[in-house]
């Protein structure tokens, strides 16, 4: 009887290991990969009528329908999937908009990586080239003295070249926006809090989280004084 139980225990353990391996293998097969691309003019304003087209450069390279460019909720165009790990092959991105020079760029899909870019098109007849810059997702949480989320805080990043990016914290205190790598002054403002400034904050892929504690009582003290 004891030997039978031991054999059953071993069989159960083997089944659990097999299932764990199967789930692990499946996790390695599927991941998020692709691109998010903002199309803007030289001043940083979104180009409303931009058209993005992606095509293969070789007949053997196929571009699945689910990764073809589509306009996302953030105003950026998305070419991404969470099925598999990448799309193999060489492709061409073509971006056109009325009043702007057409932009073309060869590309390959990354493996298990979601990359963000800002494309700035040049006006028709311009001699300058369009810029295609990698962005980083800067994100964090704004919270008060009691660790409660603080909503509707304006978070603004001002870079040394004068570029300004901004967003607002949501009902849970979380905020996020896509910005260039580099050094920026981060200013957090709200009607119920004193301004908070992070001078010369270095934004990079390994340093893209900034949580912001705010002081509600401080603003109340200022109002009384």
Structure report:
It is a single chain. This protein has 225 residues and is of the alpha+beta class. It has 2 domains: 33-129, Carboxypeptidase-like, regulatory domain (Immunoglobulin-like, Sandwich); 136-224, Immunoglobulin-like. Helices cover 16% and strands 41% of the residues. The protein has helices at 2-29, 216-224; strands spanning 33-40, 51-56, 70-71, 77-81, 91-96, 103-107, 114-120, 131-143, 154-159, 164-168, 174-180, 182-190, 193-203, 212-213. The strands form 3 sheets. Strands 1, 3, 4, 7, 8, 11 and 14 form a 7-stranded mixed sheet that branches. A 4-stranded antiparallel sheet has the order 10-9-12-13. A hairpin with a 4-residue loop joins β9 and β10. The longest helix is centred in the N-terminal third of the chain and has 28 residues, at 2-29. The chain is globular. Mean pLDDT is 87; it is low at 11-27.
Which CATH-level-2 architecture of the largest domain? Sandwich
What is the CATH level 1 assignment of the largest domain?
Mainly Beta
Return Rg in Å.
24 Å
Q: Given the C-alpha coordinates, what overall shape results?
A: globular
**Secondary structural class:** alpha+beta
Task: Report strand %.
Answer: 35-45%
Count of discrete domains: 2
Low-confidence stretches: 11-27
End-to-end separation in angstroms reads: 83 Å
Q: Can you say what the CATH homologous superfamily of the largest domain is?
A: Carboxypeptidase-like, regulatory domain
Throw out a few tags for this protein.
225 residues, alpha+beta, Immunoglobulin-like, 2 domains, seven-stranded mixed β-sheet, four-stranded antiparallel β-sheet, 2 helices, 14 strands, globular
